[in-house]
Amino acid sequence: MSASASGQPHERITAAIRRTTDAGGTALVPYITAGYPQKDRFITTLRAIASATDVVEVGVPFSDPMADGVTIQRASHAAIAAGVSLRWILAELAAAAPFDAPIVLMSYLNPLLNFGFKRLAEASVPAGVCGFIVPDLPIEESAELAVALDAQGLALIQLVTPATPPERLRMLCTASRGFVYAVTVTGITGGARELPAEVTGYLDRVRALTTLPVCAGFGVRRAEQVRKLAPHTDGVVVGSALVEQLEAGVDPVGFLRGLRAVQ
């Protein structure tokens, strides 16, 4: 189903994930850095990935991506050098929308502040953007952005970690829209090659606190990891591993379908 389906944008994210889980599968939420590795193939790559997955997370490049490991840092710096900006991303998306999957932008706060929250929310809807992940924005400081996004029906997706205290975990799950992003390991993206043994119990605790889908990310790169997580999560976010495949010239759709084929 096209991401242009009726309903509030944040509801389209939830619905896209639920379509897969209701059919007995685990949703795939791939991450790509906008304009990387080839700026002129951004939309072609995005459209192909959107056709084979459930929700697509598009990274807005930033000069100091503190939550990201070396792979996404490298991609971010290269995209900036190629002239990729939030303004460029929104213009490219608007010219190409709609896509087969809802788009979520992952951005650090500074580019959003510079763009302006109200203007950002208004520009996101025609671009097919349904929500945002802002890893350096604490929930206590998120009210202004949340109000601007809410006015357009857009999601502000909250991140939780294994170290999040119980009451804060409950607060973040309540505030989130679209889905809850459950970081599987404390640290940076791409930093872990193996998932911690206690991850399944942690994911079960998060799912018990929300009616939204829960998607697990950071460190997901192999089919057997998806198989391990599947009973405990609604979806998996695949970031650094996919960026590495794109760098190597590997067909991203084939790689992602390989992850889904284990289900």
Q: Provide mean pLDDT, rounded.
A: 92
Low-confidence stretches: none
Shape: globular
**Strand order, largest beta sheet:** 5-4-3-2-1-9-8-7-6
CATH topology (level 3) name: TIM Barrel
Task: Report the strand count.
Answer: 9
The N- and C-terminal alpha carbons lie at a distance of 21 Å
Q: CATH top level?
A: Alpha Beta
Main sheet characteristics: 9 strands, parallel
Structural class: alpha/beta
Number of helices: 12
What is the oligomeric state here?
A: single chain
Specify the helix fraction band. 40-55%
Radius of gyration: 17 Å
CATH architecture: Alpha-Beta Barrel
**CATH superfamily (homologous) name:** Aldolase class I
As a percent range, the share of strand residues is: 5-15%
Order of helices and strands: HEHEHHEHHEHEEHEHEHEHH
* Count of domains: 1
In words, what does this structure look like?
- The protein has 263 residues and is of the alpha/beta class.
- The protein has one domain (9-260): Alpha-Beta Barrel (TIM Barrel), CATH 3.20.20.70.
- It is built from 12 helices and 9 strands.
- It has helices spanning 9-22, 42-52, 70-81, 86-96, 109-115, 117-124, 143-151, 166-175, 199-207, 223-229, 240-247, 252-260; strands spanning 27-33, 56-59, 103-106, 129-133, 155-157, 159-160, 180-183, 214-217, 235-238.
- It has a 9-stranded parallel beta sheet with strand order 5-4-3-2-1-9-8-7-6.
- Strand 6 (159-160), helix 8 and strand 7 (180-183) form a beta-alpha-beta unit.
- Helix 2 (42-52) runs parallel beside helix 12 (252-260) and helix 6 (117-124) packs parallel to helix 7 (143-151).
- It starts with 8 loop residues before the first helix and ends with a helix.
- The model has no long low-confidence stretch (mean pLDDT 92).
